[in-house]
Amino acid sequence: MNETQNHDISKSFREKKSSKFLDPCQKESLNSMECLDRNNYDKGKCKDLFILYRECKKKWLEKRRELRRKG
């Protein structure tokens, strides 16, 4: 994620309603699931997409922790 995405995520997270789900990694998640569908659920063929998803999630969770610490 770049700085613009981080700022947009922070803003979106602050402004979201309590009942609205926000997942900035939704695109990566959908890509990995579509890859599984296309490849007959052979996880080995989708490894790169799973790595992208995990990295996105990791950065998102780190950003959320940072925002919580700042208050």
TrEMBL record:
Write down the InterPro entries for this protein, in alphabetical order.
CMC4, COX23, Cys_alpha_HP_mot_SF
Q: Which GO terms describe its biological process?
A: mitochondrial respiratory chain complex assembly
What are the UniProt keywords, alphabetically?
Disulfide bond, Mitochondrion
Q: Where in the cell is it found?
A: Mitochondrion intermembrane space
**What is the first-listed, main subcellular location in coarse terms?**
mitochondrion
Task: Give the Pfam families listed for this entry.
Answer: CMC4 (PF08991)
Looking at the record's lineage, which domain of life comes first? Eukaryota
Q: Which GO terms describe its cellular component?
A: mitochondrial intermembrane space
**Does the record carry S-adenosyl-L-methionine as a key word?**
no
Q: Does the keyword Nucleus apply?
A: no
What does the UniProt function comment say about this protein?
Required for the assembly of cytochrome c oxidase.
Query: PANTHER family, alphabetically?
Result: COILED-COIL-HELIX-COILED-COIL-HELIX DOMAIN-CONTAINING PROTEIN 7
The name on file for this protein is Cx9C motif-containing protein 4, mitochondrial
The species this protein was found in: Rhizophagus irregularis
